[in-house]
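Q: Convert this sequence to structure tokens.
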Amino acid sequence: MDADAQTTDRLVRLVVIVLFLKVAGFVLLAGSAAFRPVSGRGLVVGLVLAAAMAAVAVGLLRSRPWAWPLTFGVLIADAVIIGGLLRLLIDVGIALILFQPRVRARFGLR
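A:
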């Protein structure tokens, strides 16, 4: 494996790790519903978003072509529905990584 392929692999793994950390946050939110009031709609939306993030992360890890564009849909939903400046900055950072030419080429995009 050459240096470019290793760098690309590391970037994709970094994105996957960040997405799984976000999934863990949503799971913690769901778990905290037992101790504090959380709206039912918010809980369902959080769990659906967590499931979508987990699916996209696994797809990215396995270099599935559908995972690259679907990641942006999940990131946009995350930024719009959940909100927050830090979350938006993290989502933009993930998008910048995914738009790198070597990462796009890994998923069969130009």
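The longest helix spans residues 3-32.
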